[in-house]
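Hi Y.,

Following your request, here is the sequence exactly as I used it, all 526 residues.
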Amino acid sequence: MFESSARMVSEQPPTSFASLPFSNESLTQTNPKTINPSADALGFQPATKLDGAEIAKSLDRAAEDLAASSEVLTLNDSLVWADENAKEMQFAQYDYLSKTLSLLSELHLWGPRFFNKITSNLSAVSNDGLYDTSLAVVNDFSITQKLQNGGDISARALTNIARDIHDASTANSSSSALSITLDIPLLRGAGSVARESLIQAKRNLVYAARSYERFRRTFYKDIVSDYLSLVVQKQSLENAQRGVDSLRQLAKRQAALYESGRTRLYDSADAENQALASVARLSQSWERYRLALDRFKIRIGWPIQSTIQVVPATLGVQPPAVLVPEAVLEALSYRLDLQNEKDRVIDTQRGVKNALNNVLPDISFAASGSTDSDIDKPMRFGGEEIDYAAGLSVSLPLDRETERINVRQQQITLERARRQYRESRDSVAVSVRSALRNIDVFQFTLDLQERNVKIAQLGLDSINADPDRVSVLDQTRAISDLQGAQDARDSANRDLELSIVTYLLQAGRLRVSGDGALVLPKPHQK
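Below is the corresponding structure, written out as tokens. Let me know if you'd prefer a different format.
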């Protein structure tokens, strides 16, 4: 894994695993316990009547209470923690490790393999009421090695020791035999097709390394998006709280005007109702924010019982000055997932070649040689008598219809893979163009929303300068317009940074360090 990741200037994931949180007894239980109490056992406690005033006070203290009882989680802390603890990251590491283990298993099959088998037999033969007992011990040791272009070679040492227990002094024997066997295919199954499983296993590890690095980059973008969305939600709560305060001041003023006889009861009641409605919306916004915080903690693997708060953050990215054709060409070269798809087309092409090999005749060469040890001296070989054999086996391809059909199927699969790859290239080009256009759109949107905030603030300031000439509806609308403009500006600022990160991801230019942080390239010197 280290070598595979290092070749692409990437990080190797950790390979440590936690122990199972289950006892050995629970693993073999055939009747696991079920917890399902009845409704009577559960009981029911009616809730007290809601107090609107208390809810409003708790909302006023919500931000302070959260700040006092929570732990500050910065964007960088979130990325570092998620890189080590997020379940999605761990699952990606498991997939990478699984491909590595598959390659190790395949490499073992292509290395020298040693086998040793010991067999002992005790026999007793009845002879006129007496038993002739004997003990035979056979030791079978062998070594096998696959050959790169097909076939295998094996060596074997067989030792046989027999002992007559009834008359040990006269009936003992021992012998050994050495043999070597070679089997090589000459047509069908010969060449690179013989090591197809090894070739594919090695290529699969490269694909896994690319997929893991591509996942890290995509995961970085997703975590950043979630965190900045939480920041926008928090800023929206602050904007909403200021709106609630403004509406409360308006309600108090309208109530005082009504008591002095300077306005209608309707205006006072309408202002109070608008303030209460804003409190209700703020309560719903707080619940959505808390839910989003909990989901974010689950995604990055943070302890769910802990209370956290996010802080405003910026990625420090700037809109790139790049030509669309250049960006597309870079993406077609740099995108790791597209490189995987391209190489899998080569795998399919190699599958066609292997299928054609299966149509060929079976011609194989086999050779063997063996020698026995001296009698009753199993470890001594004279070398005078060596038996050998060699032969050529030919099987005519009279029935290859299934193999020929498989060739056509592989050719269809290859054509489908080529078309799919061309479609993927087109999709990458479209995504890069779209990402660059989105940067321009969100730059314009952010500038527009900043203007809207200034205009809304000017409108509210002009109303506050002379509130008597403006209706309650216009005043509440001005407060709502300012809050909406501030929310839209914060969202546009987030969308602009995310659009730049999205472009870097789509163009294959996004780089993530070992601790999950963004690595920004140095700007070119003019």
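Strands lie at 71-73, 113-127, 130-146, 152-164, 172-185, 308-310, 362-372, 386-395.

Thanks again,
Q.
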